[in-house]
Amino acid sequence: MSRALTTELGRDPKAALIFNFARLGIRDKFYALRQSIGFGRPDRAVLDHLGVPDSEMAQKATAWAASLQPDFVQYHGLRSFAFGVALGDYHNVRFDREMLYIASILHDISLASPSCDGPGSFEVEAARCAHNWLGEQGYDREKADIIHEAMALHSAVCHSGPRDPEGLLLHLGAGVDVVGMQVMNIHTDVRAQILRDYPRTGFVRDFGKLVADQADRKPRCHIAGLVGVGFAKALASNPLDRG
Fold this sequence. Notes:
There is one protein chain. The chain is an all-alpha fold. It has one domain. The protein contains 12 helices and no strands. Helix 4 crosses helix 7. The longest helix is centred in the N-terminal third of the chain and has 23 residues, at 14-36. The protein is globular.
């Protein structure tokens, strides 16, 4: 059964963004405090479950994504998936690995590919492009809809509605890779392995340029709001880059 899909996000009010980033920051401080006194520490056992799904559709998505985006965006998608898997383990979230992977590897295809970009927010443009492609591959419509929503809402920090498990984990996984959100909930050994497998070389500089370009060209788009409240500084301050 198909669902109503997100057609645009728009720019969130500055006050709402500041409030939600403050809320997320307080939450992360709470996680860190709990762990400092011995509670809720992440497990390294998830190291055995970070691999890319070996399904035919996962392989097709990997190849299609690679044809549309540069390596630093491709690696961001791979890290987002792995971090999402790790946080799914931490929070005991049951999810479909193939769907999370497809959403993760494709979620930023519109940033560097004119064929997948358009006048709207890049998150929704990427989701629409991926949804059309999945339909062409004969992929299950209900699953394609879930992937669409995961991609469309992956950066929506002000979104208060429900998320599918795959949408939640893409939101969290990409959040780790971009600004370090919930990084303390991933074991240091797991983080190190992910960064060895998918290096962040040049990511902050090059990804920042793509995001700034979107905000400059589309001042009312969703990411423009995040840029307006310090996205570049948060990206450059990610604890993943502190060694």
